[in-house]
C-alpha cells in the first residue's frame, strides 16, 4: 500500500532527485525519496548497533583501526 503526501523540499534536493530519475538511477522522484528514507532508517539502526557494541566492548583501539584500514585497503 502507498499513501500520497505532499512535502516541501529545498530546490537543490528536488533537482538531485529529478537528476537521479533522468540518469536512470531511480524510477521516479517518489521512489528516490522513499529509498532515501529507508536508507536513513538503516543508518540509524547501524548507529544504534555500533553504540551498543562500543558500550559493551569499548571503542575500537588503534590496533583495531589499523586492522580495519588494512583489510579495507585504506591508507
TrEMBL record:
Residue span of region Disordered: 55-75
Highest rank taxon of the organism: Bacteria
Name of the protein described by the UniProt record: Toxin-antitoxin system antitoxin subunit
UniProt organism field: uncultured Solirubrobacteraceae bacterium
